[in-house]
Amino acid sequence: MGLSPRVTDLGSFELLATIAATGSIGACARHHGLSQPAVSTRIRNLEQRLGLRLLDRHPRGASVTATGQMVLRWARPALDAAASLDQSLNRLTGPTPAHLTLAASTTIAEFFLPTWFTTLRNRLPGTNISVLCHNSADSVALIRRGGAELGFAEAGHIPAELDHCPVVRDRLAVVVAPDHPWALREEITPTDLAAAPLILREPGSATRSVLHDRLAALPVPLTVVPAMELTSATTIKNAAASGLGPAVLSELTVLDELADRTLVEVPMPALPLERDLHACWRRNHRFSAPARHLLDIARR
C-alpha cells in the first residue's frame, strides 16, 4: 500500500514546525527563502488535506493550534528520519550547500556582517545565509524559540539560559543638528540629556537599553521620556539633522554625517556610553559548520 497523500509533503510539515519556532509566517518565509504568500498557501493546502485547523492567524503573527502542536509531535520522527536520509545520501552524492540563519541587531547587520560573510564564504564556499534583522530584545527572543542558530545582541538583553560571548565594542554618541544650541557647547551633562526632548530608538533596542541603564545607575538616577520614538537609525538621523531634537545613536551609524557636518557630536564625559555586543546561542547547542566558523570570525 502506498503512502497516503496526506503525509507525502514533508516540506509543509517542516514549514509548520518553523512557524511554531518563530511565531510568524513572515519569519518562516524568510527562514526558508520563500515568499509569505507561498508559505500561507502551502499551510492552507496542508490544512485542507488533513481536514484540520493547524494555525491561528492574527494581525501580529500566527500561532500553532493545539491540534497543530499534536500533529507536529507526530510528524517530528518523520522529519528527523528525512533529515537522516538526506545526510546518508550526502555521503553518496556530496552535500547540498550549508545554510545558516542568524538573528542580528541593525548595527551588527549593517556594519559587521558583510565583512564577516566575505570571510565565511572564503572558508566555506556556497554557504547560504539568512539574516533576520531585529532589535536586540527580539533577536534574543528568536534564539530562545529556535528560530535562528546564532544571534547578535547587546549583552544586557541576553538571559542566563543562553550562552554568549562578546564580539564587538561600540560607542553611543549624542548628536544634534549644526544649528542646535548644543552644537556650540564643549560638553553636556547627563541631567541636560535627561531633560531634553530626545529622539530615540524603540524600547527593546540595544541603544535605548544602554542609555536607560546608564542613566539609572548614576548616583542620582535619571530617566528619559523621549519626544519621538523611531525604529530606524536612518529616520532618527534625518529627524535630528532637521532640528527636531538631539538623538543618541551608535557612533558607527553617524560617521558619514559627522564627517560632512550634517550632524554634530556633543561630548558628555560624565556618562560613558560604550557597550559590548555579544553573540548568543542556545545552551548545549551543537553548532553547524557555518555557525562555528562565523563565531570564530566574529570573535577575532
Automatic annotation (TrEMBL):
Keyword annotations from UniProtKB, A to Z: DNA-binding, Transcription, Transcription regulation
Keyword Transcription: yes
Domain HTH lysR-type: 8-65
Keyword check for Transcription: yes
SUPFAM superfamilies assigned to the protein according to its UniProt record, in alphabetical order: Periplasmic binding protein-like II (SSF53850), Winged helix' DNA-binding domain (SSF46785)
Pfam families hit by this protein: HTH_1, LysR_substrate
Molecular function as annotated in GO: DNA-binding transcription factor activity; transcription cis-regulatory region binding
Superkingdom in the source lineage: Bacteria
Family listed: Belongs to the LysR transcriptional regulatory family.
Protein's name according to its UniProt entry: Putative transcriptional regulator, LysR family
